[in-house]
Amino acid sequence: MLAPTLTNLDISQAQVLALPTEQLTGQVNLFKEISKEFGISIDAEIKKSEHGGKVGEISELAVSSKKYPKLEKIFFVGIGKATAADFAKAGAAIGRKVRGSEKVLLSACASGSTGQQRHLISAGLANYSWHLKTGAAAKVKVPTLGVVGISAKDLASAKTILSSVWLARDLIHTPANMKSPQWMAKQAKSTLSRSEIEIKVHAGADLAKFGGLRAVGNSSPKRPPVMIELFYNKNKRKVPHVVLVGKGIMFDTGGVSLKRPYDTMVAMKSDMAGAAAIIGTMKAIAALGLNVRVTGLLMCAENLLSATSQRPSDVITHYGGTTVEVRNTDAEGRLVLADGLAYANAKLKPDYLLDIATLTGSATLGLGRQHGAMYTRDQKLAKQLQEIGEKSGDRVWHMPLVDDYIPSLASPIADFNHLGDKPHVSGGSITAALFLEHFAGDSRWVHLDIAGTARSEVDAGENVKGGTGFGVRLLVEWISSL
After folding, report:
1. Is residue 187 a contact partner of residue 279, using CB atoms and an 8 Å limit?
2. CB atoms near residue 194 (< 10 Å)
């Protein structure tokens, strides 16, 4: 009913063209077989194509053969300079070409294992769909995809990453009337319970010290806040402890500081994309059997307008005792994250502490929707994450933590205000990061503001309109490199 499943998206190679297995060892043998059978020159056809190698542009050649009756067309896709990113764009293009059909697509991609995986994952992401239609309209046709010459290990890894991003997308696309903090806990349990992941749900009295999470989530008494703690440890050797903290606002009206214009609320079911990315990441690292130690903290709540909503001017006490003056209830994400960061720093002894959140619209002003905003004072770690982002497809850009902006967080009645709204400062994404930094303590901390990348406003490339699952590929690649 939701995304195409991996059963439907069977990436087995041998069935695709009915070629003998020994002929599926690489691009060259496939090209020779096709050229011989159809009496064509692949090189000549490529030269005749109109796109001239422009990335993602497609030319097609109709063919027929009694020997290979399933083979109807050959697509020639521009790959530019043949980088991994180019192969990913080409994969998305051909994935979209067969989207909504049950066609079989075999791709001859010889860019090495990284390029092949990106190519295959991008083709699969471009085929994602989610709806709640009924009757005949509910049927989703999906193609069969394959890449010639990919190893069994890389194939399995690609399947795992793809299904994990799809999981994050499914969670994001689910309408807010169907999901709540309690629903999120059930999804985590149903998705991860068969893995080696321990799951604990903190609720009610367990959250007594979590002033930020309660201040936001108490606006929805019938669907109260929870913190979902996920723990994975396949520790055959001493490994660093990674703690991931995700914003999980199931729906964000802005609270008393109601969002304007009001139509901006329509997309706010995606305000839990950070938490969704962590569930997808945990699913992937367990399925891949990575020898790592990872804890995920999902800070889940609804930010509604009700008689129990927090008010501008309220003062709340976060986990660990820091007091904060609330200036705008629509800046709720940093309040729930602050509790998660403080809890992690006090209780979990992280070697790496990373939070991921759809935090500020300001993050999109300079970076658009193609890069997530990354904040950290650890230059080496920033470089590593930026390089992995380029490799995986979840791109991030290192942003400055400007110390001159810290005074804007001062409050006359509390330790901090949470908004940093001095007119001469601006820089809303930066001041939000500076606020969160206080709660990270001395950890090797990274903040990812994915407000621009977590949701696509158009149906194009790898993404459909809506949740993208941004962060899963980046986090899995990074954690596997530690």
Report:
1. yes
2. 8
pLDDT score at 110: 55
Q: Which is catalytic among the residues 103, 141, 234, 259? A: 259
Q: DSSP strand E in 35-168: where?
A: 58-62, 73-77, 104-107, 144-147
Q: Which two tokens stand for residue 336?
A: 């729930």
Catalytic residue chosen out of the listed positions 89, 99, 334, 369: 334
Decide if pLDDT at 432 tops 60. yes
The answer to whether the CB of 111 falls within 8 A of the CB of 148 is no
Q: pLDDT tens digits, residue range 205-264?
A: 999 999 999 999 999 999 999 999 999 998 767 889 999 999 999 999 999 999 988 888
pTM value?
0.92
259 is catalytic: yes
Name which of 247, 282, 272, 283 is nearest 174 in CA terms: 272
Q: Please state the separation of Cα 113 from the chain's center in Å.
A: 22
Alpha helices per DSSP H over 134-249:
152-173, 181-192, 211-217
Q: How far apart are CA 270 and CA 169, in angstroms?
A: 9
